Amino acid sequence: MEHTLTWALTFAVSAGIGLLVGIERERKPTAKAGVRTFTLIALLGTGCALAAQLTGNAWLVAVGLALVGLTLVGAYAADPAMQAEDSGTTTVIAALFVYLLGALNFHGERTLAVALGIGMTALLYFKTELEGVATRLTPTDIRSMLQFGAVSAIVLPLLPDRSFGPYGVLNPFNIWLMVVLISGVSLAGYVAWRLTLGGKGLLLTGLLGGVISSTATTFAYARHARDATHTPSAALTVILLANVAKLVRVLLLAVVIAPQVLPMLAMVMLPALAATAPALWWHYRRASGESGGESDRLQNPTQLTTALLFGVFYALVLLAAAWLSDVVGSGGLFLLSFVSGLTDVDAITLSSARLADQGNISLAESVTAITLAVAANMLFKMGVSFVLGGRGVGRLVAIAFALPLAAMAGALLGLDALA
Fold first, then answer.
1. pTM to 2 decimals?
2. Is residue 21 part of a domain?
3. Which of these, 117, 129, 140, lies nearest to 38 by C-alpha position?
4. Which of 235, 346, 355 is nearest to 290 (CA)?
5. CA distance 214 to 345
6. Are 275 and 324 found together in one domain?
7. Would you tell me which of 26, 120, 328, 397 could form a disulfide with 34, CB atoms 3.0–4.6 Å apart?
8. Backbone φ, ψ for residue 388 (5° rounding)
9. DSSP characters for 188-228?
10. Given 101, 125, 149, which residue is the final one in a domain?
11. Residue 165, SS3?
């Protein structure tokens, strides 16, 4: 009895998967398979898998798959009018996949089968949106995605996962893993930004711009404020949101690389995030819902040259940080953090977190190094705002950044006192 109920539940789940996909296909008048057909195909997949198990003949599953494909292909071939209008390739492939999901469900992978069924239904349903995505991406964007694939799936597995060089901090696999991490985060933000045509709003533009590069976003919007393509408050909203995204990104990188650093780092970064809120709220209210605009074109961050340069820079920072910490002490590491943070926060964040994870520096020293890099980056952006946006915009950025800088300084002093 219990065995029968288990089989009944298995067939019910398969029917649900077929029903879900079938409802989506029913919306397409030219499709030769709809709700009933897809439900039966899913049940057939489960039934063939059951029969194969009971008889010990695994070929039954393959025979059923072939019959499903031949039946649908024959249905399209027998109707010349439909064949001219729609080849039916998508429906045939979907039917074959639903059959396999039915078989997969029988073999105990119920969660995976349901998830794949939902994912396939979404893929079929959003056909128009996905076609729009393809037209919005430029050849450079697609090439960069392929380059990221090469960086992550081809280069990374080939690198040795062992330490080399002085202090044992140069691990080729770990160094390139950091390149993959940063490139992946930046590429995801860039693609999301491109697909929303620059954001269509200040909030989205600022957050996604900060994921790509908070410094580049500050460059772009300080220039917009100077050229009067955006009001100063609109530009400040985007710049502040980009800085918020950078602070959150620092916390996320710490979670991935050295989770033990996170509690102490959060005690510094969360007050800075909270201190950003008053200026952000003030300028967003004054911006009165301006769109983010499409005149700013941030560069795609995932290029092989960029990845290689970041890898080299990260390795040098890692080596220099270990050397300075050993020879000069924490003061040398902190000076390096401040200088490197002027242009890039990611490298010093990753290297400091890695050194703390390996026990080469203390958690407090790692947090101090990261905070100094973040503070240096904010000071650099204040200078950029004065140069590119003029005195008025620069003064507004300086006032807005003063509170988070003071919050980080106060938090660092508090941590030092507790230590």
1. 0.60
2. yes
3. 117
4. 235
5. 10
6. yes
7. 26
8. -90, -30
9. HHHHHHHHTGGGSSHHHHHHHHHHHHHHHHHHHHHHHHHHT
10. 125
11. coil
Q: What is the pLDDT of residues 305-322, one digit of tens each?
A: 767 776 787 787 777 767
pLDDT digits (tens, 9 = 90+) for 237-288: 888 998 999 999 899 888 888 889 989 999 999 999 999 999 999 988 887 6
Beta bridge partners, 170, equal 164
CB atoms within 10 A of CB 355: 23
Q: How far is CA 159 from CA 234, 258, 309, in A?
A: 45, 22, 17
15: enclosing H helix or E strand: helix 2-26
Nearest-angstrom CA–CA distance, 58 and 42? 17
> Which residue is listed with tokens 């059951």?
50
Query: What's the one-letter identity of residue 42?
Result: A
In a domain, 393, yes or no: yes
Number of domains in the chain: 2
H helix and E strand count, the chain: 17, 0
Question: Are 155 and 88 contained in the same domain?
Answer: no
Cα distances (angstroms) measured from residue 76 to each of 127, 139, 185, 252: 21, 35, 44, 51
- Please name the residue ranges forming H helices in 288-345: 304-327, 330-341
319 neighbors 354 (Cβ within 8 angstroms): no
Q: Are residue 317 and residue 392 in the same domain, yes or no? A: yes
Residue 397's domain comprises: 139-418
